Amino acid sequence: MQEMRDRWRRRLIAFQAAYYLAAGLWPLVHLPSFEAVTGSKTDDWLVHMVGLLAAVIGAALGVAVAHERQGAAEIVVLAAGAALAFAGIDFWYVLSGTISPIYLADALVELVLLFGLTRTHRNVLAS
Q1: In a domain, 13, yes or no
Q2: d(CA 56, CA 72)
Q3: CA-wise closest residue to 74 among 60, 55, 53, 86
Q4: Owning domain of residue 29
Q5: Which of 4, 70, 119, 123 is most enclosed, with most CB atoms within 10 A?
Q6: Which secondary structure element, helix H or strand E, spans residue 35, and what is its range?
Q7: Number of structural domains, the chain?
Q8: Cα(119)–Cα(113) distance, rounded to whole angstroms?
Q9: Secondary structure string (H, E, C) spanning 82-117
Q10: Distance between CA 47 and CA 41 in Å, rounded?
Q11: In a domain, 127, yes or no
Q12: Nearest 5°: phi and psi at 71?
């Protein structure tokens, strides 16, 4: 049973890595298309910084998967913490009317990631 959970965690974190890399690099590669989908932004530098941070998180998760370390406590904390942070920001600022409701799609992805991480949980803090 744990072996199956470990395989699912590997897939889940690999998906999260790819998702964060793509989402993070998008505004860096083509800000106009990013803003066409998500709405115009005031501070391009901040969009770029958040994109770079998301991409770095994605790269770290990808390296962990490549080295079969996706079950390490620090990787699970990074994956869950990033998903929780992005979902929280998405919900807070959509509900306050600051950002476009399209960000609720990202919040849904983040919540699915969190759910998957909890379903594949093992006591990573004890390892």
Answers
A1: yes
A2: 18
A3: 60
A4: 2-121
A5: 70
A6: helix 31-38
A7: 1
A8: 10
A9: HHHHHHHHHHHHHHCCCCCCCHHHHHHHHHHHHHHH
A10: 8
A11: no
A12: -95, -5
3-state secondary structure of 41: coil
Q: What is the dihedral of CA 67, 69, 74, 80, to 10 degrees?
A: 100
Cβ pair 10, 70 in contact under 8 A = yes
pLDDT tens digits, 8-67:
999 999 999 999 999 999 999 999 999 999 999 999 999 999 999 999 999 999 999 999
* Dist CA 53 CA 124 (whole Å): 24
Compute how many other C-beta atoms are within 10 angstroms of the C-beta atom of residue 110. Answer: 23
Q: Is residue 15 part of a domain?
A: yes
The token pair at 34 is 């990013």
